[in-house]
Amino acid sequence: MTKFEYAPAPESRAIVDIKSSYGLFVNGEFVDPVDGSMFKSVNPATEEVLAEISSAGADDVDKAVQAARRAYERTWSKLSGRDRGKYLFRIARIIQERARELAVLESIDNGKPIRESRDVDIPLVAAHFFYYAGWADKLAWAGAGPDPRPHGVAAQVIPWNFPLLMLSWKIAPALAAGNTVVLKPAETTPLTALLFAEICQQADLPPGVVNIVTGAGDTGRALVEHPGVDKVAFTGSTEVGKQIARSVAGTAKKATLELGGKAANIVFDDAPIDQAVEGVVNGIFFNQGHVCCAGSRLLVQESVYDDVLARLKRRLGTLRVGDPLDKNTDIGAINSAEQLTRIRELSEVGEAEGAERWSPECELPERGFWFPPTVFTGVSQAHRIAREEIFGPVLSVLTFRTPAEAVEKANNTPFGLSAGVWTDKGSRILWMAQQLRAGVVWANTFNRFDPTSPFGGYKESGYGREGGRHGLLAYLKSEG
Amino acid sequence: MPDQRLRLGCVTTLDDARSSLPDITSSEASLRRFLHGLPGVDQAGAEARAAGLATRSIKTTAKQYAIDLAISMIDLTTLEGQDTPGKVRALCAKALRPDPSDRAVPQVAAVCVYPDLVATAVEALGGAHRSVKVASVATGFPSGRTSLAVKEADTRDAVAAGADEVDMVIDRGAFLAGRYGAVFDEIVAVKNAAGDAHLKVILETGELATYDNVRRASWLAMLAGGDFIKTSTGKVAPAATLPVTLVMLEAVRDFREATGRQVGVKPAGGIRTSKDAIRYLVLVNETAGDDWLDPDWFRLGASSLLNDLLMQRQKIATGRYAGPDYFTLD
C-alpha cells in the first residue's frame, strides 16, 4: 500500500457510439456482404463483444476493387493536386475535431491505454494526413520526375497494433499521390477504420476513393491477389509478408512490406542512465510491446549492467497495468487471446532455455487478456526469445563489452527494422548508425515517429519506406 | 538478488560510497572527477519524462489527499524589500490557520522570511512555533555576492533569532567557473554556522543552465551536508520547473542509496496552482517514492499557491467555487 494511491480516472465511453453491426464500406456507402457472414470484435480488456463485423468474401472484395477503379478513372485521377489536398486537409481537421472519440474507440477495440491513443496515436494520425495533404499539389518536386503518375488502385492490409495510425500511413500518401484505395483493417481492430469511413462521408470524399473491407486472412488474400490491384502495401507479420511477396511475384503489382522486428536497444556506459532506462521502458512496454520496431533486445555494456538493471526493475515497479480507459494506465490489455497465447508460449520457452524471468508485482484483472511486464536476464543470442519476435511486453537483456560486439550482436538477427543507441558521445552515435543494419536508428530516444521521417526495414523486416518523401514515392510511378 | 550497488560515475565505480565520501571531497580534483563522472542528463529525455508524468489524472480521493499534503508541505513565503512586521504577522496567522472557516485544514510546514524578520515570525507563531517552523533565507540572499564572513554572520543572526531552517544560496559564479571546492567549503561553513538548524541549499537552477549542472550541484550540496536541496530563490526566471525537480529527485534518491542519508527537496518559485502542486507530488511519488511524500522531506516554496489549494479544497467539499474574497490575503 503506497501513500499516494491514484483514484480511478476513467475516460468516459459516452462519446463513442458503437453500432451493433457494421457492413462493408464500398463506393461511399455501407453495404452488407454478399454471403452475409459475420464475425465479432471484442474488447480485449473485458472480453465484451463490441459489434458484429462483416466478413468480406471474394465477391465483396471484387466490388470494392471495381469501385476503387471507377473512382480512380472517373474522378480522383482527374482532380488537380490542389483539390485532392483540400479533401485530405478536410479529413485531417475532422480527425482533430473527433480526436477524443477516435482515441476512446481505439482503446476500447485495441486495449491500448487511453494515454497513448490520446497523446500518440490520434495526434500522429492527424499529422500524417496534414503532412501528405501538403504534398498533393507538389508532386512534381517529390523527385519522381516532372509529372509523376499514381499507380491506380492500392490494396492495403494493416495490423492491429496501431489500427488507425497504420491506416493513415497507408491512405494519406496513397490519396495524395492520386491513387484510390481498398483497405483491410485487422480482424480484431476494425472499429476505428469503420469510423474513418464515416469521416470520409463527412468530408464528402468522392465515393469509391476509399473502400474499407473487413475480414480475416482470407479477405486480405483475396484483396492482394485481385488482378485489378496495381499496388500492394502491407504491414504485419513476416510470415504473411512472405506469402504476399510470393503472390505479387511475376505480376505488374508494386509492393511495399513492413514486417516484423527484433530491435536492439544499446546502452553504453556513458549513457544518460535515467533517460536510457525511460527509453528502454518506452521501447518495449509502449503499446504492450505490440510494436514492430519495439526495442525487445536490451544490450547493456557490462560495466553498467548491474546499475541499469537495478534502475530498470525499480522503474518497472511503478508501471500501472490495467483498464485501458483509465487515464493513469501505462500498460493496457493484450490485443487478443491468440496473441496472449503466443506471448505465454515464448516466455515459457525462454524459461525452459535457461533465461531468468522477472516481473514486478502487479495485479492483473480477472477478465480480459493480460500479461505483466516481463524481463528476461541471462539471455544469449542462441535463445529463441532473443531471435523471434514476441510482440508483447517481454524484454530480453543481453550484455556486451565493446562497441564492435554491440554492433555484431545487434545485427545478428534476421530482422532489421529499428535500433536504439544510448550514449553521451556524438561521434559514437554516428559510427553506430552507420554500422547498424536497421531502417531506423534512434539516438538517445526510442519509438519516436514523425510523418516527415521515412520508416521501413532491412532483411526480413520488409522493403519499401513509409512516411516522408520516400513514403510518397512508393505511391508514384517514377518513370512519369 | 542482483548486485544493487549503484554506479555513481562513469569514471569511478564506488563499492561503498559511505566509506569513500571523505576521498571524494578530499580535494578539488577528486571532487571534480566525481561530479563529472556522474551519468549525464539527456535534456529531451528528462523533459519528456516530466511532461509525461504531468498528464497523470488525479481525481476525487487522490486529489483530496494531494491537496492536504501540498498544504502541509508549503513554506509560506514573503521575501520582499517592502516586508514589514505587520505583513509577517499576517503571514504567520495564515500559516497557522490557512482557512479560518475550516479547522480541518492542515497547517503549512513553515514560514519563510528574511533574517531581520525571523524574531517577528517566532513571536507571532508563539506557542505554535516548531509545529510551524520558521525558515530564513541567509548568506546574502538572493545573489549570494558577499564574503564568506558576512554569509556566516547572516546565518548565525537568523539562527540566533530563532530560525529552525536556513535557506542558503550557493555561489553560482564559483560553480559555473568550476571551482567546486569553493562552493563545497562554503556550504560546509554555513552548515557549521547554522548549527542545529536545517540547511536548505538553494542551487538557483535558472542560472545553472543545464540539467548536468543541476545534477552536479545537487550532489555537491548533499556531499557538503545540506539537509535539503532547493531549486530557486524565486528572484530568477525560470524558477522551479518539473524537469529540474525531476533531476533533483533522482539525485536525492541515488544519494540515499549510495550513502544511506536522506535529503529533502524543495522546488520554489512559480508554483501557483493546485494543478501545479499536484504535478510535483506525482513527480515525487513516481521518482523518489513514498519516503519523500512528507513535509519533512519535500516542501513547496510558494505564497499564492495556498489560496488556490484552499479554493480547490472547498470546491471538493461543497461542490462550488467561492470567490477570491472568501479566502484571506496573507
Describe the structure.
The complex is a heterodimer of chains A (480) and B (330). With 480 residues, chain A is α/β, with parallel strands linked by helices. Chain A folds into two domains: 21-259 and 459-477, Aldehyde Dehydrogenase, Chain A, domain 1, CATH 3.40.605; 264-443, Aldehyde Dehydrogenase, Chain A, domain 2 (3-Layer(aba) Sandwich). Helix content of chain A is 39%, strand content 17%. Chain A is built from 15 helices and 20 strands. Chain A has a seven-stranded mixed beta sheet, sandwiched between helices. Chain A has a six-stranded mixed beta sheet with strand order 9-8-7-10-11-19, sandwiched between helices. With 330 residues, chain B is of the alpha/beta class. Chain B has a single domain, classed as Aldolase class I (TIM Barrel, Alpha-Beta Barrel), CATH 3.20.20.70. Chain B has an eight-stranded parallel beta sheet with strand order 7-6-5-4-3-2-1-8. In chain B, helix 7 (148-160) links the parallel strand 3 (133-137) and strand 4 (165-169). In chain B, helix 7 (148-160) runs parallel beside helix 9 (180-194).
